[in-house]
Design a protein that fits this description.
This protein is an alpha+beta fold and 376 residues long. The protein folds into two domains: 250 residues, Aminopeptidase (3-Layer(aba) Sandwich); 112 residues, Alpha-Beta Plaits. 34% of the residues lie in helices and 29% in strands. The protein has twelve helices and 18 strands. The longest helix is centred in the C-terminal third of the chain and has 22 residues.
Length: 376
């Protein structure tokens, strides 16, 4: 990707942002040092902003005669992996891109024909900061007309971006299931209700939901990732706990999966004389990219750098903004085989070459120039 010379001039500052933010990685809703770093830098630029939810930072760069308000969002939180709190999902990069972009706009604010709103959002990983910010009235207060966000993505090569219109990232839910039977001695199974046997059959049965209850053209995922039960080899387990995830792009598909889990569990209770307690926590809705913004984006960025992706089953709480205003979310390629930057998101070895941060800023600049928000 060809980087504009004026964007290239921000390199040292942007690289420093990434270095400093990477050092102070913090968990969701506890990004106090991160928030202070951002506010201190905005203060140095003389920009106005407000604080929300203790750590969120939201501000605006005003044009002289704005026609609309365009927002850009970066998430702030890190991950706890193997007891280590680190930026293993690229959020330090997302913040660095937005800080660099803000500085670029501040330098060129006389060329702005629209207001630019910037949102530094806590807790994208968990428990989700987008919805609380919306409930605080951020979108209404700043009269946001449209919003953009990105994610560093190691499955795409450096210099490329991945995007698609409509359904892009999945709606998700967390499943907690407890199967309660009747414990007993392993030598006398007839006197017990074996929760482990029930659990194994139950897992097999609910896997048929995707293959037999969902239309083949409608994507869906139902995965059980954890099973826990039993105490000794010769004792039939009283109870078993299952944990899993549901993912889909359409609300009706997601709801159907939930419905069938409950229906199947009712059948198992009667068949096996057990109790099955189910708790399904609905998480983030699906990310659905606005078609008009997608085609603008596609025109603004050289086609040879754009990969039209298949829908991805990962999730993002950027989706909450899209339920209120037009929004576009895209993936910023970070894969570099030569430098061994190939580990996936949330992997302990995840990393990227900082030069991709300039790619992110460059994309935002080219987008605003195409839209006429940033006059040439």
């Amino acid at each position: 990707m060809n980087i504009r010379e004026d964007v290239q001039g921000l390199k040292n500052k942007v690289y420093k942002h990434r270095s400093e933010l990477n050092k102070i990685a913090e968990l969701g809703m506890k990004e106090y040092k991160t928030s202070k770093y951002i506010k201190d830098y905005l203060d140095s630029l003389g920009l106005e902003y407000e604080e929300y939810l203790d750590t969120a930072v939201v501000g605006i760069i005003k044009a002289k005669k704005p026609k609309k308000n365009i927002a850009f969002r970066a998430d702030m939180d890190a991950l706890n992996i193997d007891g280590q709190i680190k930026h293993l999902c690229g959020h330090d990069g997302h913040m660095s891109i937005l800080l660099g972009f803000i500085e670029y706009l501040n330098i060129n604010k006389d060329k702005l024909s629209d207001n630019i709103v910037f949102i530094f959002q806590p807790a994208e990983e968990s428990p989700g900061g987008a919805l609380p910010l919306i409930k605080e009235g951020v979108l209404e207060k700043y009269k946001v007309d449209e919003i953009y966000g990105l994610h560093i993505y190691p499955d795409i090569e450096e210099g490329f971006v991945g995007v698609k219109p409509d359904h892009f990232l999945a709606q998700t839910g967390e499943i907690d299931i407890e199967i309660v039977g009747r414990g007993g001695h392993g030598a006398m199974p007839q006197n017990s209700v074996d929760s482990i046997l029930i659990a194994s059959n139950f897992i097999n049965s609910i896997q048929s939901i995707i293959s037999r209850n969902i239309r083949p053209l409608d994507e869906g995922v139902l995965s059980i990732g954890k099973i826990e039960g039993g105490s000794r080899r010769n004792i039939i387990a009283e109870s078993v706990k299952l944990e899993g995830t549901i993912r889909a792009f359409k609300q009706e598909v997601y709801d159907k999966i939930k419905q069938r889990i409950v229906e199947i569990s009712c059948g198992f209770e009667k068949s096996f004389d057990c109790n099955i307690n189910i708790n399904i926590k609905d998480d983030y809705p699906a990310v659905n990219n606005d078609k008009e913004l997608f085609y603008e984006f596609k025109e603004a960025i050289d086609d040879k750098y754009i990969k039209i992706l298949e829908p991805l089953m990962i999730a993002e709480d950027f989706s909450y903004y899209q339920q209120h205003v037009k929004g576009l979310f895209f993936m910023l390629g970070s894969k570099n085989v030569d430098k061994e930057f190939v580990s996936g998101l949330h992997h302990i070895k995840f990393n990227f070459d900082e030069k991709i941060l300039l790619n992110g800023i460059n994309i935002y600049v080219e987008l605003l120039k195409y839209k006429g928000t940033l006059l040439k």
